[in-house]
């Protein structure tokens, strides 16, 4: 996999503005422990990671998001609810493109519902294992290089946009690839969430430097407008990621460690007293975390947000 960030390390990834103010002076990568800052663009208000590493390859180890079968099954079950909702756009079956499809679990679920599916996954090893395991059509080319004339009813960017060095050109390409009545659906962490405000640099979903852009509902909407998309709906419910984010964020603040449970589940750390403590804390916090997450969804301050957009009128370049 080769991930290349934009050349200008401290300029705004959305509007290119060069003036910014720090909103977080020191945030550590939970994997490498390298330190980064989070800046807010003076022109468009979006928050972004600085500096953007020249190469992000060292920040995506093989084990990144490589969970065991139990966690995978759980995530699959939760994703099933989302897919049922998204698939209502074309109950008889439509065409879906997932950008950053990973092992292809969402695409497989769409295919079971009679949808025509295509995945883009730039890690060739991951793409190949999804092709073999599920028989899915997965390419490693960017959206802009898909054959001309190919359009989709639904384009999904699930926890992808925050990893992209320049989100506007990608969204613009997605807008161009929408069939009439089509939707782009994206899910990103919410930098204005209660969870982010509570945990600051220790927020589980901050995940610098893999997360290059830190959206709020307002800055996400602004980004969509720049890309020629029009927001249709914003949702905050995220049962698979939000309560868990509370548990890890509280744990980070209590212990001063970074993402103990996640590091264990991804196989970075062996089982030990700290992991045991984190599981016990998770058991104690499970109900309060679920209640808090639910309240934050109703207040529009959930830790994750899902925006659905259709093609609109482009504004600023
Ligand atoms: Zn900006």
Describe this structure in words.
The protein has nine helices and eleven strands. Bound molecules: zinc ion.
Write the layout of secondary structure elements.
Layout: E1 20-28, E2 35-41, E3 47-50, H1 69-87, E4 95-99, H2 105-112, E5 116-120, H3 124-134, E6 138-139, E7 152-158, H4 167-176, E8 178-189, H5 194-199, E9 213-214, H6 217-226, E10 229-235, H7 242-255, H8 260-265, H9 273-298, E11 304-311
Zinc ion binds next to loops.
Distance between the termini: 30 Å
Q: Would you report the number of β strands? A: 11
Query: Which structural class do the helices and strands define?
Result: alpha/beta
What would the average pLDDT be, to the nearest integer?
A: 91
Question: What are the segments in which pLDDT stays under 50 over at least 5 consecutive residues?
Answer: 1-7
- C-alpha geometry: globular
| Biggest sheet statistics | 7 strands, mixed
Q: What pattern of helices and strands is seen along the backbone?
A: EEEHEHEHEEHEHEHEHHHE
Radius of gyration: 19 Å
Strand order of the largest sheet: 6-5-4-7-8-11-10
In terms of DSSP E residues, the strand content is 15-25%
Determine the number of helices (DSSP H or I, runs of at least 4 residues): 9
Bin the helical content.
25-40%
**Ligands:** zinc ion
């Amino acid at each position: 996999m080769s991930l290349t960030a934009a050349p200008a390390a401290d300029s705004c990834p959305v509007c290119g503005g060069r003036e910014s103010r720090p909103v977080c002076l020191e945030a550590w990568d939970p994997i490498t422990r390298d330190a980064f800052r989070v800046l807010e663009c003076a022109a468009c208000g979006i928050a972004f990671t600085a500096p953007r590493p020249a190469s992000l390859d060292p920040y995506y180890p093989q084990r990144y998001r490589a969970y065991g079968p139990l966690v995978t099954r759980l995530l699959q079950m939760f994703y099933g609810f989302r897919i049922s909702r998204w698939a209502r756009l074309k109950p008889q079956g439509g065409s879906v493109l997932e950008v950053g499809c990973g092992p292809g679990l969402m695409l497989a679920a769409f295919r079971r519902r009679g949808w025509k599916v295509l995945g883009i996954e730039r890690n060739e090893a991951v793409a190949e294992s999804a092709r073999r395991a599920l028989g899915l059509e997965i390419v490693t080319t960017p959206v802009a290089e898909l054959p001309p004339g190919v359009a989709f009813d639904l384009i999904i960017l699930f926890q992808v946009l925050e990893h992209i060095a320049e989100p506007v050109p990608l969204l613009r390409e997605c807008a161009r690839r929408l069939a009439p009545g089509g939707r782009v659906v994206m899910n990103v962490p919410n930098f204005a969430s209660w969870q982010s405000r509570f945990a600051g640099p220790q927020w589980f979903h901050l995940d610098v430097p893999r997360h290059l852009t830190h959206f709020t509902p307002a800055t996400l909407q602004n980004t969509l407008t720049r890309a020629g998309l029009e927001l249709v709906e914003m949702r905050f419910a995220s049962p698979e990621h939000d309560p868990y984010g509370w548990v890890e964020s509280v744990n980070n603040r209590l212990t001063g460690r970074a993402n103990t449970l996640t590091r264990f589940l991804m196989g970075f750390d062996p089982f030990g007293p700290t992991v045991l403590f984190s599981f016990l804390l998770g058991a104690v916090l499970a109900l309060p975390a679920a209640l808090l997450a639910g309240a934050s969804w109703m207040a529009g301050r959930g830790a994750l947000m899902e925006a659905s957009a259709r093609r609109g009128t482009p504004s600023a370049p």
